[in-house]
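Posting here for the record, re: pyridoxal-5'-phosphate.
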Amino acid sequence: MIELTPRLDETLEEALYMQLYHYIRGEIVAGRIPTNNRLPSIRRLSAHLGVSRTPVALAYDQLLAEGYIISKPRSGFYTADVETFSISPPTTYLKDQSNVPPSIPRSYHSSQEDLALYDFGYGSVDLDSFPLTKWRKLMNRCLLPENSRLLLYGDLQGDPELREEIATYLHQIRGVRCSSEQIIIGAGTYHSLDLLFQLLKRDVSCMAVEKSVNNGVKALLEQFRFDLHPLHLESDGIRIEEVYNSKAQAVYVTPSHQFPFGMTLSVNKRIKLLNWAKEHNAYIIENDYDGEFRYNGRPIPSLQSLDNDERVVYVGTFSKVLTPSFRISYLVLPHTLLEQFRLGRHSYDQLASPIFQKTLQLFMQSGDFERHMRKMRSLYHKKHDILLQAIRHVFQDINIDIIGTGSGLHILLRVRNGMNETQLVQTAKQKGVIVYPTSIYTLKQELTATPTVLLGFGGLSEMDIRTGIELLNKAWSAE
Ligand SMILES: Cc1ncc(COP(=O)(O)O)c(C=O)c1O
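Prediction output follows.
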C-alpha cells in the first residue's frame, strides 16, 4: 500500500489518533482497504500525514486490539479478514441501478526551433528517472501473440483491470472513494474533460471557473459555450461567496495546486464548496492534475474524498507522475453522470491505447509504480528545494516574490524590476532560458498586476536549475 490519506483536523475535539483510527476502520469495514493488505509503516504514515508517530502508533494499537488489523513480525501491519459491507457509493445515492444499461492540447515546453539551454517547461518530467527497462519488459509482454487482442479496440470505459488499479491507487494517495465502475479512462485531461462536458451539457449552462485557467481547458470551455463566471483567487483558493452569488450549476477548480498560480484550496473552503454543491444540486469538477506531489505540511485529501453527496467529478492524469507521452487520464464519475455515460449521451470513443493501458496496469500491479512514485516524490522535492534556495540566494538585488510553492511541479515568480511580463520572458530567452507567461491564462485576457512568470522544474537537472536561475538574474538585472 502506498499511503493513506484521511482528513485530520487538529481543531476538532476528537484526538488525532481517534480520527485516524475511525478513518482506517471505516475504510476496512467498507472494503476499500482489502483484506491482507499491508498498511504503511508507522514511520512512513506519520511522515506522509505530517504528524508525530504517536497518533499513528496509537491508532494502529487500537485497530490491533479490536482485530481490524494484525501485526506480522518483521513485516508490518496487515488488514485482517473482517466482514465487509459491499462497496457502495459513499452517499445517499441509492437509486436502483438495475435500469442502468450495461456498460485541445497546448505546448508545455519550448518548441523544437526554440530549444533553449534551460527550459523551465512546466509539462516536463525527469526523463532520466523513467524506468525504461521495466516498462519495455512489460510492454513486450503485451506484444506476445497470446495477447494479440490488445491490438484491437479496448473496453469503452478503459481496461477493467487498470481501472481496478486506479481505484485502489486513488484511494490510497488522494482518499478518493469510488469503485472501478465509476472510472473512465481517457487519452489526456482535455480528452477526459471533453467527454465530461458532453455529459454535463444537459444540466449545466453556467459554470463558475477559477479566474486563471490552463489554456487547453479554457479553449474547451469556450468551445462548449458555457456561460463562464470567473472566480477571484486568494491565497487559500477561490472566493466562495462568488460561487454563491453566481448562477453556476458547476464549478471547475484545481484545488491541490491551482493552475497556474499554485495556491491550495483550504479545507474550510473545500467544505463550503461541497455544501454549496449539495444545496444547489450542482457539480464540482476537481482537476487534480499534480495532486500526487506535496512537499510540506499534511496532504490535503481531495474534494472527492470529502464528498458524501456525489457532487464531485474527479479528473486526473498520469502525465506528471509518469510521463505525458502515454496519454492516459481518467475521470471518476458520480453515479448520475455514469448513467448518462452508459446511456450513450456522448460521442466518445476510447482513445488511450489498449497496449499502453495494459502495460500501465502491469506496472501498477507489480509494485513498480509505487516505487517509481516514491522515488519521484523525493526527487522532485529535492529539485523544488534547490530551485527555491537558488532563487533566494541569487536574486539579491531584484525584488521578487516566490509563490505557489510546496506542491506540484512548478512555482511562480512575481518580479518587480520595471520589466513587463513580455520583457521578462524575452530577456530570459536571450540568455538561453525559457520561462512562461501567466497572463495568457486569465479567462478574459488581461495582464496580472505584477508581472508574474511560471517556472517548471520537473525536467531540469539540479545543476541546470542553478545555472538557469543565475542566467535569469543576469537577464533581469540588465539595464
Ligand atoms: C491544469 C492542467 N491539467 C492537466 C494537465 C495535464 O494534461 P494531460 O493529461 O493532457 O497531459 C496539465 C498540464 O500541464 C495542466 O496544467
